[in-house]
Amino acid sequence: MGDSSSRDRKVRGRKIRADRSKKKRRKAKKQAKKQRASNGTDGESANGTDPSTLTSPEEIAPDPFVETDAVTEVRDKITGWLEADQPVHLIGPTGCGKTALALSAAAERGRPVVWLNGDEAVGTAELVGTHSGGERYEERDQFVSGVSKTTEVVRERWVDNPLSVAVREGATLVYNEFSRSDPAAHNVLLSVLEEGVLERPGKHGEDRTIDVHPEFRLLVTSNDVEYAGVHEQQDALLDRFVGVHVGYYDAETEREIVAAHTDVPEETIERVVDAIRTLRDELDVVVGTRAAITAAEGLSVFAEDADEFDDELLADVFTDVLAPKLAGEDDEIDELRETIEDAL
After folding, report:
1. Which CDD domains match (predicted)?
2. 53-128+160-245: what fold?
3. Looking at the predicted structure, is the pLDDT value of residue 11 above 60?
4. Measuring CA to CA, which of 109, 176, 275, 280 is 20 to 30 A from 322?
């Protein structure tokens, strides 16, 4: 804690509630399905695609997912543009629910989904595919009696990566944190979106290109450009997207989202969400809905009674939740806590 005078916190045991148990069972069931797919026990898709690359819409749909009017309105806009065969770029602050929206919209299409996380290490090969090792075999020539000639042949083995799989299978490619990848890696998307053809550098012969399946769709998410680690993408590519901005939801929606992810009393959720919305206006750091979920989970542990706690504990919890956004210097943490105390 930044404030050395903060009281010692007591950790109370959590009560095992029926709804939490159900959530855990649902999560375990989904994980088991994914594991079976990765082991190949659920069969392969057409063209021999590794089934662990393609995910069914039922498995990819976020659970829990809150559907208030505000959420449904944004998702319908996304699915509408996808239906119009337009690639969609979801843009918004961290912790506002972009990823859940993207997965829900992709699941609504009823087509397989391919997932990709962007970062500095993603290049063209990570998108399209690459050679992975080789297969060795021998050819024996015995056309001349008594003379045997053996030739060792090495054939390179090509492995398709997410973009190749998605365009061939007609899947929805959900490219999360799209703007964290090097813009040069995305040049390959231009021919996909403009000409309907994917070129696979390094692949030779007739298989060098793939005709884009008519059901292929592209849905990418990005933080706002002022975030650290975010690259500005080339205009030629961005001109082919439609942009849907995702902001923070209204108070009612945020309360329902926190309630869906935690097991705390309604009064606690209301107090946490009210505090988050106040801090969002008062602090220079990003305070997303995810921070409200984390704070509510913290209160369920540190408060002796989940629906009775004072502002001191609330300030303690919010300081812990938001401190990672700072450099970590003691004076910065102290200043953060003072600002939180004043706001509360």
Report:
1. AAA
2. Rossmann fold (3.40.50)
3. no
4. 176
